[in-house]
Amino acid sequence: MTWYDSLLQQLVDGLVLGAFYALVALGYTMVFGVIKLLNFAHGDLYMTGAFAGFGGLSLVSGVLGAGWLGIFVAMLLAMLAVGCLGVVIERVAYHPMLGAPRLSILITALAVSLVLQNAALSLTGGQYTAFRTDLGFGGLNLGNLFLSYNQIVLVATAGVLMIALELFVSRTAYGRAMRAVAIDKEMCRMLGINVSAVIAVTFFIGSGLAAAAGTMAGAYYGSIWYFMGFLIGLKAFTAAVIGGIGSITGAMLGGLILGLLESFGTHIPFIGSEWKDVFTFSILILVLVLKPTGLLGKSEVERM
Amino acid sequence: MLLRLQQVALSFAGNTVLHDVDFGVEPGRIQSLIGPNGAGKTSMFNVITGFYRPQRGDITFDGERLVRQEPHRVTQMGIARTFQNVRLFREMSVLENVMAGQHCRSRAGALSAILRLPSQRAEEQRILETSLACLDFVGLLEHRDRLATNLAYGHQRRVEIARALATEPRLLLLDEPAAGLNSGEKQSLIGLIRRIRDERGVSVLLIEHDMSLVMNVSERISVLDHGRLIAEGAPQAVQNYPRVIEAYLGQDDEELTW
């Protein structure tokens, strides 16, 4: 393998990682957009999505098999279920707090995170659950570069979901309302927009995307556990900050950039993979210090 | 009566803002609400549109009760409003701002929007056409793709009116629509307000300090002072009421150019 092939391989790995980060970062940034909350329970919705996808797959695998079709249907079921869970969480935990100081609702989000984690912990006993699929290990050999079919499907699915989201936000009445709510809630009420409904739709979509990422991660890596959402939650947050929190395109971009940086960063001499997370969060600190609004964020000072 | 307030009382922490106000707007009328600063005019708008809940009293719009309705419901029932200071969605285009006003008239839910059902596409098309018509009505069709924040101030005020019209109201509340406009813009505002009533059949209630504009455009004037309605009638009559002159002369900062 030449350095050039190795570089391409890192690019592919980075894209896969970036697709996960981007999907989860989208939920972070959308929720922040409409209610200015850093939803620290978002990573745990990803974890819940992985378990929901696991459950969904065991439901449908008898009929559809545990290949791509089965996983795809399981992913849709997980998106639906976790989307609804996100709406319930917003109604029960965040909605009553919207008038409270920003810090209170942030702590509520941490509490929701603990509730989800501990619920999963007591249901699984803290054990890893094997996410068995019939996905093979086939792929395309392009010279010295190996692209597995799983990687291709995964990145393509993430791409389709993100394009669909972008179209929804830019072209539909609800997407427009979502952007309007992010700018001026009170004015939206005045225009007859049901702001609570728009917030609910935002949580549904954001949580659904996290669930899609969770299911795909489960199928791709082959095992899931109750704590899997913690680190990716923080990394998706980092991705959202890199892209500019509140910006949807920024979250997609930030996710990809972070995935690529991590993939390449672990191959810099003396920075082995055990330094991966140090590398990631150093980037977070650098962005926060040098360009707190991120790549595409607005220069609005955030009051916490 | 299109809009009727009966014995409406509003207070904040013991300070009474509105004292048992009886007030009404006839359908098809251009009416003004005037009074010194702090008289409770904007509070009255806030009570009508559901932002404040009055302690007592009843408000009906075309026979339907408005009290305790959420602001978005009030808009859906047919009352639109603009604010004293321009509040456009700055980072959105002029057209998108107006289209946001159409949102409350869309029936397709979020699910059909996510799935992009044909019914939803037809609805998007209808929203687009209605919004373009509203922009054309205020004479800003050519600016539709510009960011709202890049428009001249006078134009921004017109976009606000177009956005309010896009909610398809039967009553339009304008809170100081002439504030910050030059005399030419004020003249065309008068024309616009008349056309809103004449061509679209929308009744207009406005709060305004510019007395020449108020006298020019209003068919009926109501005067509020310290939360009480102290006079009501045709412009010429109201301007000669001793209590009105007294209320205004008691103020020293008000531009009193009848």
Describe the structure.
The complex is a heterodimer of chains A (304) and B (258). Chain A has 304 residues and is mainly alpha-helical. Chain A has one domain. Helix content of chain A is 73%, strand content 4%. Chain A has a two-stranded antiparallel sheet. In chain A, strands 2-3 form a two-stranded antiparallel ribbon. In chain A, helix 1 crosses helix 6 (173-183), helix 1 packs antiparallel against helix 8 (195-221) and helix 3 (68-94) crosses helix 8. The N and C termini of chain A lie far apart (50 Å). The model of chain A has no long low-confidence stretch (mean pLDDT 90). Chain B is α/β, with parallel strands linked by helices and 258 residues long. Helix content of chain B is 40%, strand content 23%. Chain B has ten helices and ten strands. Chain B has helices at 41-48, 71-77, 94-102, 110-115, 118-137, 153-166, 183-200, 211-217, 235-240, 242-249; strands at 3-12, 15-25, 30-34, 56-61, 64-65, 79-82, 171-175, 203-207, 220-225, 228-233. In chain B, strands 6-7-8-3-9-10 form a six-stranded mixed sheet, with helices on both faces. In chain B, helix 3 crosses helix 5 (118-137), helix 3 packs parallel to helix 6 and helix 5 crosses helix 6 (153-166). Chain B is globular and about 60 Å long. Classes of the chains: A mainly alpha (304), B alpha/beta (258). The A-B interface holds A 167-168, 171-177, 179-180, 183-184, 187-195, 197, 201, 204-205, 298 and B 49, 51, 70-76, 80-81, 83, 87, 89-92, 96, 99-106, 108, 110, 113-114, 116, 120, 123-124, 127, 163-164, 167.
